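Predict fold of Alpha/beta hydrolase; 449 aa.
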Amino acid sequence: MRGIVNQDLNERLQSPSVNASIARFYKKNDILEVTGAVRGDFFDDDNLWYTLDNGAFVWNGAVDVEPECNTPDPEDKEQFVISYRRVLSDGSADMFIKDPANELHFTPLKLPAKEATLQFNKLIPTHFADGVIQSVKKLKDQNRRHVVVYIHGFQPFSSLKLDLLTSYANNYMNFPGNKIAKVLFLVWPAQGLGRKRADDRAVLAGRNFTRNELFKPFEVLSQELRKEGMFLDLVVHSFGHQLLNGMLNPFDSLKLPKDVFENIFLMASDVTHLALNEKGFDLPNFFGRNDRFMYDYTQLKRLGRKVHVFFDEFDYLLYVSTKKFVGADRLAERPLERDRRGLTDNYRNLGNYGIGELKDIFKPQLGFNVQSVQTLIAPNDIANLCDFPWQPYETTSFFRRHIDNVALTADYGGFGLLDIVFNARRLQNYHKYVFTCRPVVRKVQSLLI
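Predicted 3D structure, encoded as tokens:
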């Protein structure tokens, strides 16, 4: 597995110890070949060490591992990108306008792809469906019967986030007995440095999607796939759930089709957990603001036949998101636990709602299959980093202490943007890629027919 050094680092001989002999010295951005992981000396509250292909050891906190463990077969390099961004006259996606398009475009591509080379065509539902099905029929394994639509999440700066498409295709399609045939990666203008404004735009973009009947191409594709004994599924990640919420609310039975997707997978949902309540919840899109949005995922049970919600209680970025919605200044003014809970209870993030006490106070409505990522990981299983390259934080680490404080006292004081800046690849990679790690892939594949 490829590792990228993120700070000055010593390579240790003989043992994973700060007292072991130093074999060599690495600088930031040096590349390592990581073969495994072991427990060793604690350093900076963390005792996980990586083993290298030469048998030496390096402390894991100074190395960012990349989750892709295999290179896909040539036929699995052929996927599709659907653009909900505006497309320029030369066929390229407009990377600067933050408003969505009123129509969809698409292009086939080969992984790994560079966004500057992509040229999009207008998406005509029947032609699009025919193109996808013909691509599927070229596969050697005709038992792969699922086509997946993937909606990505937030981005501070504009891009097409093709790294997520690559990670998904690599890790799902290399799984033994893989049932996924193709991935349709839906890109949309999710960028912005102002989170409040980005959230509002995402909800409105979702409403625009349904209002313009942009589910129609997926409805047509779903119908054509079923004629061939195949299925269409939906995967939504992180901030993409704000877009999804706008697609569903306000509900319009004339515009929102039924049973388009066989399965809907919600991964690291960056919205309030109350979106799964019966009848949802009317909520300001940041605490203390006057503008309100209905958060209600009830209609997902109309849009898809089965809905699966995956959460991870160690997803640090989603705790920062909750704190952002509530407001750090308001939390700082509430020294008492009951007052902090009065602020945070409605904003707790669905993506990591399942920690301890939240399981007791929140019961999702029937029809949602809720799954913890941590229950899928074998205890203390660090033998194969390709299976799960991010280990749960040690109880003594500041990451874990902050997370535990949320459960015990509703105290989000330890979470901050500087933590993300100084641990960017570690925390962001966990959030982006944990849902393509082997334990999650195994579970998702088991849920496909």
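The chain has a mean pLDDT of 89.
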